[in-house]
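Entry type: protein chain
Record version: 2
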Amino acid sequence: MANTSEIRNGLCINYKNDIYSVVEFLHVKPGKGPAFVRTKLKSMTNGKVIDNTFPSSHKIDIVRVERRKFQYLYKDDEGFHFMNNENYEQVFIAKDFIENAQFMKEGITVEILYHAEEDRPLTVDLPQYSVVEITYTEPGEKGNTATNATKPATIETGAEIKVPIFINEGDKVKIETATGAYVERSKE
């Protein structure tokens, strides 16, 4: 058991029979009354974000987690298959544990957060950016470039994103995996 002075961003704790990750925190010491810690906690099982306030003397149960690198292999009807980069063991993970799975390209390296004591996966973290190929997009119209005009495009994973008008089929683009936002045309 630890106390609230050890709360920091990224810390995983047991709270209300679930595992939560601290997204944001603020130690508050008001002029009157005892100090407290205001937090935003994200559930590792269902992704819900809750606001919670802990009194300064409150005891918290810290969960030890490990980050392990895996390579994404393929997807089937049940979920996603990954291979451990160190011992080549394969792991199956359901879609519920992966945010923005539609931007995950076969062969990329991801980090899987594991509960250290129970040796079970908690969540899958994609890399911040990914380079993908445009498989389908309408040709851009000339003269329609007055203000940051965009058009829909389908990428090789099957997801649809918005790209600038000058992007064509077969181009490789860099996207932000958290939002699917276009970053730049890739030189790869």
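Comment: The CA atoms of residues 16 and 122 lie 16 Å apart.
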